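Reader question, answered in our methods column.
A reader sent in the components of a multi-part assembly and asked whether the whole thing could be modeled at once rather than chain by chain. We filled in our standard form and ran it. Here is what they sent:
COMPLEX SIZE: two components
ENTRIES:
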Amino acid sequence: MTVASTTQLVCFVILSSTLVLGSLAVVLLPNIVYSAFLLAGVFLSVAGLYLLLNASFVAAAQVLVYVGAVNVLILFAIMLVNKKENLAPIPGMALRRFLSGAVCAGLLGLLIRVAFTTPWALPGPTPVGEDATIRIGEHLFSDYLLPFELASVLLLMAMIGAIVLARRDVFSIDIITGEPADQVLIEKERSPLLLEPTDSVPLRSSP
Amino acid sequence: MTADAIPLQAFLTVAAFLFCIGVWGLINSRNAVRVLMSIELMLNAVNLNLMAFSNYLDGQLVRGQVFAIFVITVAAAEAAVGLAILLSLYRNRETVDMERFNLLRW
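And here is the structure of the entire assembly that came back:
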């Protein structure tokens, strides 16, 4: 074994153990803020694995998009909805966890068995290495041009949809005086629509 | 340049672990934000598979990397819309507990 392959092996072991342990912690930790920060670590170790696979452009895109955008978005969502609430216990939760764990372990076994029993056409063609970025550019502007353009439309639709879904309704007319409230937008009073009726405050009076 | 030290199956195994952890978290999470995180984990597992196949089996035409870029794009759009839906839900139900989003349950 040469020094380069040993280095690759050591990097792979470190990155993959970070990946698996970090993703387990993302799923299992009770504090969701820790989960969000560990998710950034998981994304970074995936980017490191991409570097091991001769894909520097996709590794950079992974860091920029996932760590820079998606993870920050998740942190903002946690900040906006962070309310201490005691989740009511659900009967059969332990059984559900056990059953789904068994199903996931079975799926894992199936995937690993497929990976090890399929006769892959190895060794394939020699990887292009650092020229991969040039090849990606050629693909994006020749045979993958239509999906590339559709992706821009999809991103535009997602942006508009997110704005429409997340903005609050504002009145343009003052509901008390009936005059246009164009100087200061008056936010509608915060009224939850679908709260479950509690015992103290019933939502509708029984006839 | 070929990664002789690491077999293809090692990458596939790591991706399988990541995917199964994501599935388990998707089923068992009570917090809606954690469900979105689990979906991101599963998408990353799929991307890792695509990149491994692109490097080992399709080294000249790196089509797997192009697919991975498209998956990253769609995942970013999905995260934005999903978190907007989550905010809207939180405004209406005052909770992020997945077990209480049961308006359509029969």
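What stands out: Chain B touches chain A through 83 residues (CB under 8 Å). The two ends of chain B are 57 Å apart (CA to CA).
Send us your own complexes using the same form.
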